What we know:
Aspartate Aminotransferase, domain 1; eight-stranded mixed sheet; three-stranded antiparallel sheet; 13 helices; 13 strands; L-aspartate:2-oxoglutarate aminotransferase activity (chains A, B); AspAT_Ic (chains A, B); EC 2.6.1.- (chains A, B); transferase (chains A, B); PyrdxlP-dep_Trfase (chains A, B)
Amino acid sequence: MKPYSKLTKEELKKLKGQLEKQFEEVKAKGIHLDMSRGKPSKAQLDLSNGLMDVLNGDSDLVSSDGVDCRNYGVLDGITEARKLLADMSEVPERNILIYGNSSLNVMFDTVSRAMTHGIMGSTPWCKLDKVKFLCPVPGYDRHFAITEYFGIEMINVPLLPTGPDMDMVEKLVAEDPAIKGIWCVPKYSNPTGVSYSDETVRRFAHLKPAAKDFRIFWDNAYSIHHLYDDKRDVILELLNECVKAGNPDMVFKFISTSKVSFPGSGIAALAASRANIEDAKSFMKFQTIGHDKLNQLRHVRFFKDMPGMYEHMRKHAAILRPKFEKVEDVLEKEIGGLGIGTWTKPLGGYFISFDSMDGCAKAIVAKAKEAGLIMTGAGATFPYGKDPKDSNIRIAPSFPTVEELAQAAEIFVLSVKLVSVEKLLGAK
Amino acid sequence: MKPYSKLTKEELKKLKGQLEKQFEEVKAKGIHLDMSRGKPSKAQLDLSNGLMDVLNGDSDLVSSDGVDCRNYGVLDGITEARKLLADMSEVPERNILIYGNSSLNVMFDTVSRAMTHGIMGSTPWCKLDKVKFLCPVPGYDRHFAITEYFGIEMINVPLLPTGPDMDMVEKLVAEDPAIKGIWCVPKYSNPTGVSYSDETVRRFAHLKPAAKDFRIFWDNAYSIHHLYDDKRDVILELLNECVKAGNPDMVFKFISTSKVSFPGSGIAALAASRANIEDAKSFMKFQTIGHDKLNQLRHVRFFKDMPGMYEHMRKHAAILRPKFEKVEDVLEKEIGGLGIGTWTKPLGGYFISFDSMDGCAKAIVAKAKEAGLIMTGAGATFPYGKDPKDSNIRIAPSFPTVEELAQAAEIFVLSVKLVSVEKLLGAK
């Protein structure tokens, strides 16, 4: 079929009628599907059920360096957990601080700490007239929600196929001392799947920010979340690059096992320079006596080491891969060549990013909802929920089954087609 | 033996010589004991090993209302955990918000939230010139550390046998709008073991604070931590009293299972009015997607209900009781009637509070350390670590064995005697 833009008004009208009929038929099926969040499926969760078996009442619940994990103490995390998460973060153990069950919580607390106490001796952000963050877009809604909640002004930076527009990033951070941070998902970025190029990482390491307390918030949420064995993205390790560039304190790396073991019952960590780690601990030591060491022990006993974790991630990939491919197949088959949308084919992560014709995203998501398909709200991938082009839609294929995804994709492409036809007719 | 104050200078000198000889003998034993913190002993931790057995890979990991506890979600905590901790807090389920592994963390985050966002719409505390907290003394060092960390001015309020000096509390909160809170451990108070009288609780409920965002920080850390079956303290439930008094929003109650199951691997909660719970959630929803639901499920499956928890606490009491009694016996036998110290005999909680002659506490703790006994630092039970009388010492008998405690008590009483004799000699 030829691109919709080449169709005459009559052809579009006729097409609209056919699509509406098809849509009513799909709607009549009474489907209820939620594709709004990047949640692992039941089959993926089952992969980690063994985590519930590694510790029992007869287990040795003492860490490798003799700590009874059942009692108070050990602010930094037990030695073997520090080792595992240091390896996962590709940093030395001295650069790791273990937290609780959620890296989002670590990020939130890091911003909160900067608000009330500053960073490494800087003025608390709450005492400043203005604090700003750069936000590569499209990006992760929960990042933007944190900075919005703390009244931090967010500035959109385009996310290119190589990562954020570094010309813009370099210029802005050098000029404006109110810019204190940038949100990054450097690998299999949420939602685009983009992984930052080596040059981008190096340019990050060499930033010359006007603010001494500027930090790169490097949320490596999908560091080992590949979809394929034989093709995968590899990114440069940023802390090391920052050290080489003479900027060791400029980065906070965040990591967790949320999409490795169980979301909500995993372990999270901050990776950063020793100076940053000590600064974080100066806050944390008042906040808690220690995080859940039994859960740390449980994770290390289950995964053992990085090879163990890689093997586990291949099982996740085997479940996720067909789902991504199903969505991509339907998109290609149904929309390919029509000129009404483009989408990403990521090699990892949790999302497919779809860009509709300008001004159509909200309408498409609303249309899909009519037929029982809940998608991430249009605009969610932008600060303040405002997508300037109203075109980006995040597709989260992980939770539904392949069969459900086929249905979901059918509803989605019908919604895209209908809204696009209506848009084109409106312009005629 | 007669009171030291009645001894002549010569008698004191002779006594000093004898005590120094005894002390050298004890010191020569090369003892290393840590009695500084209220940590459960290994025997107590063993009581909860079954917690590691209740969930395994074949378990039904779905909550009573159908939530897969392995996946994201459920900000408030799973239904059965809300019920259990509501019962433990003696409030309806609608007044409970489940948090992570530590009530200290809940308290810290509550103060942090007030700093950056205020409470229920009030001005964020970080925007105010001055914020003050009332601190009943002696009290819990980690409470005081939180308020000090946030630059909150702390005002000492004497803790009487009935609870804080309510004449002073009523007057101060009514007069000074900068007073935003008061730290309370209402039952088996840390370190005195005092439980607040019904009148004290009612007067708390009827406070007329000048600050609308004044809150009572009610840390019910030892709510079910009795030492005896047949005698125990009972306190009025404060939230209910606040509702009756027309002040439903004035209290934050904090609770956890830290000294019920495993410290660091327990579950914690905030109990408060719905308006306060919604306010807390408006912060928490940006901070996390949810706390560890598997650990919530684990706790409910292990304890089942409050009778289950009470039965468990009786086992803790059976281990703790002889330790408290051993320390009390040695103190009575060795120091009773000498006029050089008084101490509490609590019916529950984790501490015995000792008051030496004025100006002796620091020296006693230092002396004990010489012989290998680490105690809580003198002054720690007061804001800024400053005990105006230098007399209060917190004794934490939980962690050592009864045999170790006998040794520890011997070192302690010798240290008290020596320092007291030196003090009296200095005054002659």
